[in-house]
Amino acid sequence: MKKLIIFLLIFTALGIGLYYYTATVVFPSPENCKICHFITPFYNKWKASTHNKVPCLKCHVYKIEKAVAAQFLFLAGSYNPRPLSNVPDKNCLQSGCHDKRLVESKVQFTKLGITFDHKPHFVEMKRGITLHCRSCHSDIVQGEHLKVSMNVCFLCHFMGVPHDQAVTGCPSCHAAPKQDIMVRGSAFSHSAALKAGTGCNQCHMEVTRGDGSVPKDKCYFCHVERTEKYADVKFVHEKHVKEKQIDCLWCHEKIIHGKVKMAEHIPMAK
Description:
Helices cover 37% and strands 14% of the residues. It is of the alpha+beta class and 270 residues long. The strands form four sheets. The chain has a two-stranded antiparallel ribbon with strand order 1-2. The chain has helices at 2-26, 30-36, 40-47, 56-59, 64-75, 89-92, 118-123, 133-136, 150-158, 190-195, 200-203, 233-243; strands at residues 106-109, 114-117, 137-141, 144-148, 181-183, 186-188, 204-209, 256-262. The longest helix is centred in the first third of the chain and has 25 residues, at 2-26.
């Protein structure tokens, strides 16, 4: 009996030690995430990004208990290795990270001439949808682990309106050029044209291509025979955007924005 007790004590101590070592050293290491998850491209982008000093679990919600449960799912043949991460907004806004983002909320995209204000996008519902940080910061590109996806902006600002309009109007994102520009060999003044009452769409006849639709068969990438709620837009966005943080472009087709079609005759107001 004494030997059995000693054996159990040693076994328990080793078990606790192994669990502690795994939970504090092995599990938090970003390098080890690749062992179970097919995320090598994501890992490589993170490694080359400005976030490469921030460990995965500083942002992503994933506990060791879930990892252990995943082993049983793997053995049962039910494990899904595709990365579907969750990053709560509070993790982005935690002290030492982006905690001043809603105070110093405006940023300038100088190349595009756009002033973006985080606060109204974050604290107000937009088109009936509650946005979160990853609604916009979802693209993964070389040198940056999280990048603003302009395609998400285009979905919100152009979906459901004619191809020569924006939901919030053109000036909500960018002002007209202050300097004259050359159009077909002649100088064109946006200021003079607007002063004369010329609307943007008189010249910019189409500024988008695509409608941002959601093909029904996109549902089958994640669900099997579960499209009964397909037409319930409010429910779908509550579950997929607000709760699960699914990226918009997993479901929606892209909307392209730019000088898609210009008028043949441009009024040269001076």
